[in-house]
């Protein structure tokens, strides 16, 4: 399993990261509908890590929690207080808390694999997972609106009250694109592009470090000190991005649900 792309050929030239990083060769079940490559395997690992951590943290719940239980409760409380209840209130926040919690931790764990040694790529860096999560958020938005107001949700979303009727020819297409097309697209692309760019930058810095240390001549080797320093800084930055993107994805999902539950719908 290659962690990074090759950094030098036999002639000693440097080759940076490639988009081929996101299309690794098949590891298991090649030629079937169940092909598993490196990124899919990383997704499995991330999901197993979520299940294991939550199982270990909740299997023996105590009134005075231990460190594991405290850590899990802090994560759950963060989603409940800062995302679900803050935007949806206690009643609706409780209804949609399982969904928002699942989205937050799934995105977080799959993002964070991008900086874990021997994994080194995010499970969200290929469009499948971001797209599925965006569709789930979109379906939750539609469900919330239709459940709240079956007869008025789509009408009020496409024909906002108070707008002069002659303006609907302009407003309605804009509202349709904004509410029913661009939301899932932007959710998908925001997460995907952040993870793709982050991975390419890390590969660039660390592969350049390898090149300068092992292939460059003379004082050029000293450039490796700079690239490894930048690599370390961007690793810390990538951790921040991984957490922030998980928060943003769950937050925007809650925002869309809140808009669907608004009184005018």
Structure commentary:
By secondary structure, the chain is an all-alpha fold. It has one domain. It is built from six helices and two strands. It has helices spanning 38-58, 67-112, 128-148, 153-158, 168-214, 223-261; strands at 26-28, 36-37. It has a two-stranded antiparallel sheet with strand order 1-2. Strand 1 (26-28) and strand 2 form a beta hairpin. Helix 1 runs antiparallel to helix 2 and helix 2 crosses helix 6 (223-261). The termini are far apart. Residues 1-10 have low confidence and may be disordered.
Give a brief description.
The chain is built from six helices and two strands. By secondary structure, it is mostly helical.
Secondary structure layout:
Elements: E1 26-28, E2 36-37, H1 38-58, H2 67-112, H3 128-148, H4 153-158, H5 168-214, H6 223-261
Antiparallel strand pairs: 1-2
Helix pairs in contact: 1-2, 2-6, 3-5, 3-6, 5-6
Q: Output the number of helix runs.
A: 6
State the end-to-end CA separation. Answer: 52 Å
Instruction: List unreliable stretches of 5+ residues.
Output: 1-10
Shape: globular
Main structural class: mainly alpha
Could you say how many structural domains there are in total? 1
Most strands sheet: 2 strands, antiparallel
| Widest sheet, order of strands | 1-2
Rg calculated over all Cα atoms: 23 Å
The average pLDDT score comes to 90
The run of helices and strands is EEHHHHHH
Strand percentage, roughly?
A: under 5%
Number of DSSP E strands: 2
Helical content, roughly? 55-70%
């Amino acid at each position: 399993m290659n962690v990074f792309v090759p950094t030098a050929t036999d002639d000693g030239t440097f080759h940076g990261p490639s988009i081929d990083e996101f299309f690794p060769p098949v590891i298991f079940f090649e030629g079937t509908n169940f092909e598993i490559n490196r990124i899919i395997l990383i997704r499995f690992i991330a999901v197993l890590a979520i299940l294991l951590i939550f199982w270990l943290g909740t299997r023996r719940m105590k009134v005075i929690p231990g460190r594991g239980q405290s850590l899990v409760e802090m994560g759950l409380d963060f989603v409940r207080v800062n995302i679900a209840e803050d935007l949806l209130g206690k009643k609706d926040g409780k209804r949609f808390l399982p969904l928002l919690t699942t989205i937050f931790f799934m995105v977080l764990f799959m993002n964070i694999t991008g900086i874990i040694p021997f994994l080194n790529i995010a499970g969200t860096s290929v469009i499948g997972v971001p797209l599925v999560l965006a569709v789930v958020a979109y379906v939750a938005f539609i469900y919330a609106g239709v459940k709240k107001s079956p007869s008025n949700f789509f009408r009020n979303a496409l024909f906002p009250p108070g707008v002069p009727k002659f303006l609907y020819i302009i407003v309605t297409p804009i509202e349709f694109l904004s509410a029913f097309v661009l939301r899932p697209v932007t959710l998908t692309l925001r997460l995907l592009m952040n993870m793709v760019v982050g991975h390419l930058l890390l590969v660039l810095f660390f592969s350049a470090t390898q090149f300068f240390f092992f292939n460059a001549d003379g004082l050029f080797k000293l450039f490796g000190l700079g690239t490894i320093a930048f690599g370390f800084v961007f690793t810390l930055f990538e951790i921040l991005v991984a957490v922030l993107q998980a928060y943003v994805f769950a937050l925007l999902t809650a925002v869309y649900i809140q808009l669907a539950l608004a009184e005018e719908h």
